[in-house]
Amino acid sequence: MGYFNSFSDFLNMGGHALYVWLSYAITLVLFLYNLLSLWLKKRAFFTQAKRQLKREQRLS
Amino acid sequence: MKITMPRWFYQLASPKWCYDILGMLSPWLGLAALILLSVGVVWGLVFAPPDYQQGNSYRIIYIHVPSAILAQSCFMLMAVAGAIGMIWKMKVAHIVAKSAAPIGASMTIIALSTGAIWGKPTWGAWWVWDARLTSMLILFFLYIGIIALYSAFENKASGDQAAAILSLVGIVNIPIIKYSVEWWNTLHQPASFTLTKKPAMPPEMWLPLLVMVLGYYCFFAFVLIGRTRIELLEREQKSGWVSAIINEAR
Fold first, then answer.
1. For the segment B89-113, what is each residue's pLDDT rounded down to a tens digit?
2. How far apart are CA B226 and CA B95, in angstroms?
3. Which of A56, B71, B166, B230 is most buried, taking the most CB atoms under 10 A from its CB?
């Protein structure tokens, strides 16, 4: 597999496993955070907007 | 003096037109980001050769360098959008700038934290008060300041103005980050990519890095478009085209 002899060799990253995997984990978390906050922003808008639209329709 | 701009420039000022066009672009950018980032990560982690000095820890480069590039590109985009917003009184430009700020801040966090983790096995320290690291930390504080300004005003237009001014002032930090490795004696290595010189790495190493940079740009564009579209809806909530979209969404 690529430049590694085995899967455990790959996980070990030549003794730098902690540094490599910690960096990739932090990056993954922040990428997911960006997607999650986008989704939450969208949901918050539509929940609020629908409620307001209903209120306006009841008044008119 | 009145500067006349092409027609598409004025269409950009129409929130509905922007909402529709961005909605068409969004899925393609999301797909491109997914493909490029998957290919880039596997290529960089598995198939790129190890570095002759740093061994495998150098593989952090594939997430560190693109995030540092994006952190700076995003700041420049914010400053340009802020300037356009102030000069032409274009609301959409301010909305783009506001939507970019949190993404840029998260890219700066990735660059700083992966840099610190990479520094430990390479330099023997998590953090050094080196010119490159310090100027990136200042970039992070600028992002925080800009995000805070957007929500510090009751009137959204005042927040837009204040944040645009801070991003225009803060732009002086960008050349400082770029040339910090040349102006000062630093531990940080010089740029991996320049437009004029050949990379100091073999293609097996820089090709996956290029794929990752493109993937980061697509991801950034995807999230930016998503945030911009919702911000457009929020600010235009009173207009008819937004009511139609809200009605459809139920």
1. 888 999 999 999 999 999 999 999 9
2. 12
3. B71
Nearest to A16 among B57, B227, B234 (CB): B57
Record the pTM.
0.92
Q: Is residue A24 part of a domain?
A: yes
Q: Say if the Cβ atoms of A20 and B219 lie within 8 Å.
A: no
Contact check, Cβ <8 Å, B113/A15: no
Check if A11 contacts B (Cβ < 8 Å). no
Question: Residue A15 — left, alpha, or beta (φ > 0 → left; ψ -120 to 50 → alpha)?
Answer: left
A31 is in which domain, residue-wise?
16-59
Count: domains in chain A: 1
Structure tokens at A51: 């409620």
Q: Are B72 and B161 in contact (CB under 8 A)?
A: no
Instruction: Give the domain ranges of chain B.
Output: 62-186+200-232
pLDDT one-digit tens code per residue, A40-58: 999 999 999 989 888 888 8
**Residue A60 C-alpha, separation from nearest chain B C-alpha, in angstroms:** 15
